[in-house]
């Protein structure tokens, strides 16, 4: 029976921490990469791993302390004698073992045939926010975006190796990227294939990693892209820019860049769907008499026709001067909401004029009559904005 304590060189009273330390030391000394890949070295390395598997597991360690080898074929049924390490399958379990071995060997074969995995990995997709002006999304625009990301390492060009060096075949797995392991269980030997721990499954190791990127083939940096802001875009719309995300590992392809637009608040115009809305203060007299007022729109100066008798919150529509819609040439309208201003600073002459007007219109003592809410200025405004 194997003496797992002796293999790791620790006492029977060793703590889990001491066992772990002893295991690491033994691995360093006996690793096939270090000690050379001879059958003896590999056998010793297997024993070290078996010893650690037993002694690091409280249950298995207890079994072993009671004189049972948990790693012996057949699960250590008995005192260990007659179930020698590597001495074939335990008697009585032969038929099961054969079945399992065949089964797992087939599974393992399928796995192993995949071969080493590529060091190259595609970079991750990246999401960046881009704040743009209202005019940018109304007319479409170009905007520069600089963002922090991974960029390919210039020094090694993504090879991960220091200049003048190259990856070498992994000694531990012979370049296959996988190691086969026989696990002894109650049902016999089971073969499992694991990614090689030495090369992480790459099949090669990098003896001298690139000092610039620490062997990753990429470094933190920043990229700049010129973004075409499509006309009609709105806050929350996403744009995918293919291949401009994070640089991949080891020269792998870039991920994609996703840009989320955030439209800056405009002091004068708010967006409601395809339309733009603004508020135009109109003197009471202009509302009553009618006027043509000029406002500065996103399309430059435009005339707003205030009809005689315009009511508070009445809406004047300037067609085609609104916002756009993605993938459409048609623009919505600019809705100008009239904000009729009643003077609060009348001087004596003005007050007299208004009193004469009131008398002329018989409005000196206006009669009280409530208006129904259905036709109120508020519901009219809503209807108007909704295009009803
Ligand atoms: Zn590099
Ligand atoms: Zn390997």
What does this protein structure show overall?
The chain contains ten helices and 15 strands. With 388 residues, the chain is α+β, with helices and mostly antiparallel strands. It folds into three domains: 85 residues, Orthogonal Bundle (Helix Hairpins), CATH 1.10.287; 100 residues, Sandwich (HSP40/DNAj peptide-binding domain), CATH 2.60.260.20; 116 residues, HSP40/DNAj peptide-binding domain (Sandwich). The protein has a four-stranded mixed sheet with strand order 10-11-15-14. The site of one zinc ion has 7 residues, from loops.
Quick summary:
The chain is α+β, with helices and mostly antiparallel strands and 388 residues long. It has helices spanning 4-8, 16-30, 32-35, 39-55, 58-65, 94-112, 134-139, 284-289, 348-360, 377-385, and strands spanning 126-132, 141-152, 168-169, 178-185, 188-195, 204-205, 218-229, 238-241, 257-263, 270-272, 275-283, 291-297, 300-306, 315-318, 334-341.
Question: Helix and strand layout, with pairings?
Answer:
Elements: H1 4-8, H2 16-30, H3 32-35, H4 39-55, H5 58-65, H6 94-112, E1 126-132, H7 134-139, E2 141-152, E3 168-169, E4 178-185, E5 188-195, E6 204-205, E7 218-229, E8 238-241, E9 257-263, E10 270-272, E11 275-283, H8 284-289, E12 291-297, E13 300-306, E14 315-318, E15 334-341, H9 348-360, H10 377-385
Parallel strand pairs: 1-9, 11-15
Antiparallel strand pairs: 2-7, 3-6, 4-5, 8-9, 10-11, 12-13, 14-15
Helix pairs in contact: 2-4
**Tally of strands:** 15
Tally of alpha and pi helices: 10
Mean pLDDT: 85
pLDDT under 50 segments (min length 5)?
Answer: 74-113
As a whole number of angstroms, the C-alpha radius of gyration is 40 Å
Strand order across the largest sheet: 10-11-15-14
